[in-house]
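Lab meeting notes turned into a lecture example. A postdoc, R.K., suggested we walk through two folding results consecutively so the class can see how the record format repeats. The first protein's sequence and structure tokens come next.
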Amino acid sequence: MRDFNFRNDTKLLFRNDIRETVSEITKGHKVMLVYGSGSIKQNGCHEDITRTLVDSGIPFIEYGGSSREFEKIEQGIRLAKTNEVTMIIGAGGASVMDSAKLMAFGFYHEPDLWDYVKGKPSYGLKRLPLALIPTYPSSGSENGLGAVTVDSRNGDFGTAYGIPADYAILCPRYSLTLDKEMTTYTGLVTLVQLSACVLGDRNRMSYDAGISYIRNVLEATKTLQNNPDDLNARGIIMLGASLSTSSRIGIGKEDNFAYDIYELEFLPEKLFGSSYRRSLTSVFPLFLKVMGKHHAEDVRKYYADAFGFDSSIEESTRKLIGLFSDFGVEMCYEGEISRKQVDDIPCQTELSKDEIFEIMNALIRK
């Protein structure tokens, strides 16, 4: 068995009602509540947090409109310092949670923050206490170490690795306000992210656990098609997203080829203006088809174990595209692309430029 680490930085708290937990973890702090466009006011999360803080006598300030934009993160850090904040709560989707991580870390490392975004080690360094509450489950940012940011002022972007939250509070009812399409994507994106961990895992226990997570997330996604109010199904997807960024699966990987999906998903974002969720979902089956030329045994085993597909990789890929399409998500894009357009986008993967173009070209509706 290979060496591996079981990471336990973040306490994962699954709650149907977060109020008592929020009161407990914020005791003795001055809190800055970080959120995005305001969806947390629609789903009830904002009221639950603020009312709890008021009732518990916890001083707090709010920072709405946050995003992965580095300029917004810098503004949040300055606000936290000016108000002598001692704890941050980030509530929302991946963008908000990533920004909250960088604010908590940047509170003590603001002058060098961009260096950490570009690869300077940050794990174990001082930061503000941090709690994250996902209201759009799928990214797993609440339980992961990464924090993505972009700086539109100069067109640069990067990911700081090594910034865990102290608490991840999972409450399925906050996702009830998502429409059918968005709810479907929470399941499919979680499935893909779990799959990236499972593919190539040589540890029997973590591989089998990962396959179980994938099957349960798939079944929960199906359940929500007809019963969107099923909180058990929403809870499974929410937990699956957190597990996809934990150290509980993928611990026996000897080759990280499956993580190349995150390099490739960025291309449709640039080529077609796609969202992350649509890009990741549409690229994944084609990624498996092409990557199967290099890792045939791993891909065939994954298809058989996760979905019961026992045919060729090409046929299994068609079945997976059909499965995703049956959920009503769009698997193709309109328009045309050139080889130069694709080649000009940085993409760190073991696949050749010909193979990358093959995947992108196959996404075009014929």
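The second example is placed directly after the first for contrast:
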Amino acid sequence: MTLRRSFLLGLAALIVAPFASHAAELPDLGGRKVVVVTENAYPPLQFVDPKTGKQIGWEYDAMDDIAKRLNFKVEYQNTSWDAMIQAVSDGQYNIGMTGITIKDDRKEKVDFSDPYMRSQQLMLVRGDESRFTDAKTFKALESGLVGAQPGTSPFYTAVYEVLDGNEQNPRIKLFETFGATVQALKAGDVDLVLTDSTAGKGYVDASNGALKIVGEPLGTEDFGFIFPKGSDLVAPVNAAIAAMKADGTMDALNKKWFLDYKMGQ
């Protein structure tokens, strides 16, 4: 069984189950404009197609489908991960999407949709890496460096599950975007990047053997869209997500982006 196929099967088992029932008719938002912000550094959820320069991915397809179901017009904008949650909290954007893990501390700043996907955290390394094979052996490799974005789940996984719990550990090298951590890994500037299975599999598939996954999953996390606190979009989007799970749209998106799509081809 191929790595991509085995991931799809695992993902299908982990996707949050659809609601037992959903409204026959979804809310109609009357064609209003909704500004959606993303990072474009998280394949296959959202990224820039190197062949066409267009913004594509699972989340773009899902959001476009939600917009059609709810009758709103999407305007996409981009920002960095470290600015996104605060910017949405401040009302600069109506919705944020970039594989955002649903966490209690983030709920203090933004509202989350219901989960649309569940993923696992994995260890992404260079294809020829042989010095370590899991978190324990990486920790023992005192010269090993891990790349991460501050404030993200991979950062805290690196600190508390892979290293020693010290957020100032000099073995952690910080980068503004996830894509930058992967480029640093490829260049040999770091030796490990903690990522969720969604992005990790995308980068492995596009690397032609330059990258691989090692070790066992380090944790499980649910993804959701984010909104300013009190947003009237949360309930309609949740209804659309439920309908997409119930009618097979989510399964079709998973097949398209995790099985059929081949990055770089």
